[in-house]
Automatic annotation (TrEMBL), chain B:
Organism: Salipiger abyssi
GO cellular component terms attached to this protein's record: plasma membrane
Keyword Cell membrane listed: yes
PANTHER family (alphabetical): DIPEPTIDE TRANSPORT SYSTEM PERMEASE PROTEIN DPPB-RELATED
Name of the protein: Peptide/nickel transport system substrate-binding protein
Principal subcellular localisation of the protein: membrane
Membrane topology: Multi-pass membrane protein
One Pfam family recorded for the sequence: BPD_transp_1
Transmembrane feature ranges: 100-121, 133-156, 168-188, 226-252, 272-294
Keyword Cell membrane (UniProt): yes
Subcellular location: Cell membrane
Record key words, sorted: Cell membrane, Membrane, Plasmid, Transmembrane, Transmembrane helix, Transport
UniProt similarity note: Belongs to the binding-protein-dependent transport system permease family.
Amino acid sequence: MSDPILSIRNLTVDLPKGGDRPHAVEALSLDIQPKEIVCIVGESGSGKSITSFTTMGLLPKALTPSSGEVIFDGQDLLKISASEHAKLRGRRMAMIFQEPMSALNPCYTVGNQIEEMFEQHTDLAAAERRARTLRLLQEVHLPEPERIYTSYPHQLSGGQRQRIVIAMALALDPALLIADEPTTALDLSTQAQILHLLKELREHHSAGIMFVTHDFDVVAEIADRVVVMKEGRIVEEGTAEEVLNRPQHPYTRLLIDAVPRRTRVERDSLDGRPELLKVAGLEKTYHVKGNMFRPGRIVHACKNIEFAVRKGETLGIVGESGSGKSTLVKCLIRLEDPDEGAVWVEGTNIAAFSKRALHPYRKMIQIVFQDPYGSLNPRRTIGDQLVEGPVNFGRDRAEAMARARELMKIVRLDPEALNRYPNQFSGGQRQRICIARALMVEPKVLIADEAVSALDVSVQKEVLKLLNEIRDKMGLTVLFITHDLRVAAQVCDNLIVMQQGAIVERGTVDKVFGAPSHPYTQQLLAAQPGQGWDVPDVSKLPPVSAASGVGGVV
Amino acid sequence: MLLYILKRLGLAALVALTVSAISFSLLFLAGDPAISIAGENASSEDIAAITERYGFDRPLPVQYADWLVSAAQGDLGRSWYFDLPTTQIIGDRLGVTMTLGLLAISFALILAIPMGVAAAVRPNSLIDRAALFISVVGQAIPSFWFGLILIVVFSIKLGLVPASGSDSWKHFILPTVVLGYYATPAIMRLTRAGMIEVLSADYIRTARAKGLNPRKVLFKHALRNAVIPVISLAAVQMGFMLGGSIVVESIFALHGAGFLAWESISRNDLPVMQALILVFSMFYILFTFLADVLNAWMDPRLRVG
């Protein structure tokens, strides 16, 4: 093996005093070779991003590396001055970030922002800088480089912006590329393209890539080597093949066990159950207002949507951003008024009901939103927020409180916690509170709108399990809105796939996954990361050896 | 960009029209204008003659249209007190006010923006405390008192600058400081808040990850984004300084348009007041328009769809 590009030895980064643990990263050692993709995997708070920021010299001021070495280009990055570190950034090491939407300065053209790399680090003449920039745009497969060059970030899509950030990172052919969750904020097909691009870059450049992610399917897609982190420590390290198929550490096994399987848990047949919710010919268009100089645009967000869900069924609605699934949900719960069509709830068409007539039906359909942090009022106790719904529908407060206690038990939270405020709960706990809140008014239909997308995989697994349990126990009908096919496959009975406002595919999970008929579904399935990987059944692996079972460094 | 400017221009024209209607109606809000002109001891014949002469008996819309057409031609009526065209009286005084206003806003910007930036780069540092102190003091001190103190210290005790008049550039130093200091706190705090927000933005992290030198990160990437709202605020402040410099002009005996407004009120010279309100409003609209254009030039999200 050649000399590593980056060699981290016993790195410890301190957290500010009073945190839940003393170190963000503890005694971490890691090597990255040229042309190698090393994935650092872990859940939120595992210290994986801190590791990458330390290497880049971009740590927030509150965090300080207290011991260890980060050897790069023959020098210890922890010992060089800030300005020396800045000289390495961009030229010798470059970074790709998670949020392509906000990673570029809105005030300058992307061409200008890429060219800055050459301005800062080289003596190239203006014409040469421009030519190199255009070549980079081509290399990251952006169409019409000339046009893109003069575009501003807000004129480009998320995927395009991420390509710009990648082009920027590649400008000076750095020896080390750090990618911090570069595809997490992107659609499935864009993610597949970006992953493909990164693999291509490994072939054509000699850079070593540190790839930070929480997604084992992405790991399976791209990694040569894997490092698993938990609470600031490395718990397992090895080749991708070893770690993915024969994980040794219990935590790695837990994570891999939580990876959504492609197969569904078998359920009783739904035949003969009554239809609870039925939608027919639903149309919704938005008019984007024009003005005296520009004609308005019409966005057809829902085109002739038609489906039915039986009592106790889970219907998955799958689509990428902009597919119209959110608009559909808003029409179903009448946060938006559909232009045309019918929404039958137990045989009553509520699509054209007035606000007043709608009121009693409101409680029949409840929703759990994506962001567990934003959807609870931070200034009111959980209890207050739970009883608000039933009280609003005329229930006695004490009675509602009793129900709240009961539901807290069902979502496996301590009923005593009703007096507490949302900030005292973790993301997964908050999402369970949101589920409890939705159930307070005893709905018939529960809509989960990307309800697990923001959660770590292990937490995601628990919430999904909980949703299934509640559905079976209470005879709920669930609409499961997601962009993630893997999750949909696990919990849904039937699926509909939406694209540009229309349903392009429908059927049982097995049919949609096994024999997709629409090109778009086929494309989505093909874009799925980690397909070559058969997720091992952790329960059938040999028991954890004593040496690695103690949670220390392997 | 052109489209945007045209749209803003159309909007500005609408605002101007509305303001003109309001300032026209002022004449009638104070009661029958003929009685005001005639004075306290006038006979009913005198009032009738005046009504006849000024055409106050015509329907209001006709009078407004008439007034609007003359205003567009640069005729804003005659002063009741001086019996001279108001435009001539105001024109004589506007130079001083404009000079003072531009100097004061420049002073405020030159003081406030660097301080705001410095305070944002090191929050809670000594610089930040100092900037906060300066801005709190600026908000708390009444400008007439501050003006008098400056006169006592710099004109009377030290004899460095003249205390009153508008004959040379030296006469403008103290009024500029007083009026400019008044506008400083708001601009500085907005700059500071904007910079703190922008400095934590993802694109600043990107700029640092590119290895750009800190000056470039700060001035090219951060300041431009942070200063966009400051431009709008400065335009509003500038408009305010034109009309609101009455106190400062009185203290330093700068006979500008603000001072004229004060004089006209005491003389009950309605046409001059009316014309001043219109002129001030037009400048206000002009500055807001210029700020909009400048903002669009700075922020591509405003100019390219």
